[in-house]
Amino acid sequence: MAVRGARAGTVRPLLGRSAEREAIGQLLEAVRDGRSGVLVLVGEAGIGKTRLLDHAAAQAVGVQLTRIAGVEIEQPLGYSALHRILRPHLARVHQLPAGQRAALNAAFGLADAAPVDRHLVGLAALTLLAAVASELPLLCLIDDVHWLDRESAETLAFVARRLYADSLGLIFAVRDDFQGDGLFGAVPSLRVEGLPAGDARQLLSLVAPGHLDAVVADRVVAGTGGNPLALIELGAHLGVEQLAGVVPMPEPLPVGALLVEHFRQSVAALASDTRTLLLLIAAAPTDDRAVIWRAAGVLGLSAAAAAAAVQAGILRQGTTVDFRHPLIRSSVYAAASAEDRRRIHAALAAASDPDRVPDRRAWHRAEAAAGPDEEVAADLEAASELARARGGYSAQALFLSKSAALTTEPARRAERYLAAAEAHLTSGDHAPVLPLLDLAAPALHHPATRARALRIRASAELFNTRNDRVPAMMLGAVAELADTDGRMTRDLLYEAMHAAVIARDPMYRTTMAEVAGAVLAAPHDPDPQEWSPDQLVQGLALRAARGYGSSVTTMQAALAGLRTAAELRDMATPFSILVSIAAIDVWDIEAYVEVVGRLAAVDRSQGALYGLSLAVSNLASTEIWNGRLAAADALYSEADDYAEAIGLKTQKDLNRALLYAWMGRDEDVRTTVAMMDAVADTYGLGLLRQLALHALCILDLGARRYHQALRHALLSYHEDAPSLGNLMLPLLVEAAVRAGDRHSATLALQRLEDRAQLAGTPWALGLLARSRALMGEDADAEEQYQESIALLGKVPLAAEQARSRLLFGEWLRRRKRRAEARTQLRAAYESFDAWGAALFAERARSELLATGATGATARRSRTGSGFELTAQERQVALLAASGLTNAEVASRLFITTSTVEFHLNKVFRKLGITSRRRIAEALGRTGTAGDAEPS
User: Which intervals hold domain HTH luxR-type (predicted)?
Assistant: First the structure.
């Protein structure tokens, strides 16, 4: 039977698809109206996703249009698809902020630059596309997302999640079996199903060459599930007699995988030169058609060979040669013999400019290799470095994996597999890591390479399973090194201590004491960098191994050094966590805010959103202690936003237990604590339990449930974890005194006496004075309360100062000194009430009423607290109030200036103001958001 293909020039109406048309129409309306829209069309091959993109393009009147499709052969080339999208607009790159401009130029190989975080590339792409759309609305259509290179897919998903009010629309089309690690999970999607029976029959009648029997039509529609491509191809594939019902149809119908076979047969019927040219087109990059004709010259092919493919409906008729449907491209390449593929890739390698596209040339050479070839492997390794320099870590990993497979010498092959595994870790694609380590394992004979492999495996475990398994693996890597590499040893011990502090005992095959002992036994760096974490790690090890008194001086010196360092650098395992733990442990709030704020600024400038999300979340705690609950909530939302932007699955309330406790949200605290306990058990994060105990203790103190607060505080007292072990001591004293447990209060005060005086900071001494007052005699208590209030007023700890005022007021009232009590209680009440600290406000109010106060004690409306704003509105409002420009706010939050303007307009309306100068006043805050984190 002769095989016919559907003609490329055939124009058919779009049948059915009312839901899809409506969604596309709403998106275009939003884009034209100055807003943004994103839609992901999901469905099986041939279901009509590309046809819907055609429809969107036809409807995009008055809108700029950019359209690309993913190509399987280009997957190893990092940022190749993004480059195709942005190429028409690259003349605008010089208008981007310097950091974004450098990131985009590095990603596209347009300038020599250090590797940058892919999310900074994402921000640059977002800013550039938004700038284009600000002049005329822009619609980007991206077909076959499942064949995009990983870097481009991640960047486009990032852009899609950051759009809001930018006159910019994105429509993606993706196969339903796409394994994208949830990249597009947070954006609207629409599943595209087969056509309804009536529409499917109508489409089949349009493509059938003659009479279509009704029974045959029903069977074809049922057999294809209404898949439009299957209907079109069957209409062309089946004979006239079969469609008319005269001759039986094949059993089963050629749908699904058999469609590919249909395409293969269509190609097989063509002449040899045409088949060779089709294979060449299938293997060539889509954005460099000149290379096709240079390679065709190498193979002795002429342009005339394409004419038969156009006539057969395999290629589109147009100025460029391209396949009518992506399935044809993949079926052509899949059907070719290994020998034919090697011959084609050899021709493409010969036709590729080694200076202009060395990475593509290296890949074609590798595909042309019949076996191990060290010269080709070295070319691939060099290409991997180009990919790394552009931030294309997935591409780097693919080049290195291929290089390793072609490497002849076992040790060198193992090193390349290890490098590929590291690149996959950096890219966030953890699935290939362990298989690559297994491939490397037989040739890991040198201690340094074995240690490196263990470190990579531990990092993969950290992401894939349990944190409490990591310390033992890092210590195993240290043992493998056996003092042969001091710097790597210290890096491994940093990661071991980091994981151990978060895991707490019990750990897998080690203990905190063993980890601390290994840190203390390791040689010191004779010439450490000023930003080095080594001294801080040393201090935490001393804390674990020899007690608090041995650690204070070292941790204080480490924090002081970090505060004065000319530059700070974050680590692969974010440094902000250890800094915050150490700063709390020595009660140094100023070091905490400054160093973690600077680390956040470093992460922000590099687009390192994972580290940034943790740093910002840590800064939220400082806002809580300073009584700025709305600001803390905004920071938590910002941290969640960054985590979601990188596809990190988060449970948003996980970090908010302390905030909810201060707000008096009893049910939310208990729900969050249950979640924290479950996550701690599942992932080996014992520190979460300590954070949960702290939140519960604050909640119960606010509600005057002193026996329950005492129970939580005693658990933390016995654990004595760095930071939280000290933070809970004044809470334990208060709970024990109020619960009548003098013995527990005495133990806690004794530990607090010893440690606070060693630390010597206003925070430590202010809490100590308050605790002494709770335990002391009347003659001393008043002076100690006043000392506590004065000391805590020297540092940004307004909430702690207000708690001291509350306790002092309670003490004064019980001694019948009502007028003096009213002064302290009113100040405490007004602070708690303004902040939204409901339980402490109620506790202060009831005490104030007991002094005989009236009128002013009625609960004030907190319309200025900022909680009626959405999370991102609060973020924008607080940053605008700090004096940042719209462009600076946009860069800081990884959004666009138009989105900032949109949110500010809503903030003004909700707060009833007309100027950003009045935002801080309207939010009922003192200070500014800029105090919390340097920009």
Answer: 862-927
